[in-house]
Structures are given as structure tokens and as C-alpha cells.
Amino acid sequence: MAAEGVVKDVGEIHARLLDHRPVVQGEIKCFIREFERNHREEERLEAVLGHAQQMGQTIPACTMLLEDNLAQVTANLRVATSMCEKISETEEKMAKADPLKNRREGRKQEWDAFMSDQFGRSAEVDREHEILCDKITEQHRLKEELLKEGKVSMP
């Protein structure tokens, strides 16, 4: 029994002092992870390099197209600008030289005032008509009462 305990203790001491497998395995895993991460970064850098090389080929072609067409675009832009200025000047002249517009607006205001006055007069005539109708209705009612009472004779 004592020998078994000693063997067990010696085995544990040997495992702690001389068995480096767990430490080495941890280091290996860390190295592999680092290697894989560096590999992914390398792939990304290669992709960026590919894009940069593609842009290096595209940029000269774009500058050539720009140089070829810039004069034409500038000329078209000048023509468009001058046309816009002419249209703007024409509109300003039309706005200034339109006396009919002012007259139309004046007549429209006069017409609106006239129609407003007519609506007011029409409403007044309608009220007077209603009052007269009520008076006539009242007179007829009174005459009918007098007729029923026999105080007024019919001609």
C-alpha cells in the first residue's frame, strides 16, 4: 500500500515536471490559429492588390476617355447654359411686357367685387320676398278667419 502511494505520487510528479504534452498542445493550437489568421489576412491583402492592379489599368483608360470627351462636354455645357440664359431673358421680357396680365387681374378683381355685390343683393331680395310672402300669408289667414266668422262678405 505504501508502495502504491509512492508510485502514484512519483507518477504525479513525473506528469507535472516532465510531461509537457498539454503545454505543447496548447502552443501548437495557438500557432495554428495564428497561422490561419495570417493566411486569411494574406488572402485579403492579395484581393486588395488585385483590385489595386485592376484600378491601375482602369484609371488610364478613364483619363483617356475624359481627355477625348471633355472638350465636347464643355462645348455642350456652354450651349446649354446660353440657351438657359436666353430662355430666362425671354421670360423676364414677357413678364415685364405683359400689360394685358395686369388688366386681366384688374378685371378679375372688379368681377369678383361685382359678383359679391350681386350675391348680397340677391340675398336681400330673397329676405324681402320671404317677409312679403309671410305678410300675404298672414293677411289671407286673417281674411279666411273673418270669412268663417261671417264678418266679411264676398263680393
UniProtKB/TrEMBL annotation:
Family, per entry: Belongs to the BLOC1S5 family.
Protein name: Biogenesis of lysosome-related organelles complex 1 subunit 5
The organism of origin for this protein: Branchiostoma floridae (Florida lancelet)
Source superkingdom: Eukaryota
InterPro entries (UniProt xref): Bloc1s5 (IPR017243)
A Pfam match: Muted
GO CC annotation terms, alphabetical: BLOC-1 complex; transport vesicle
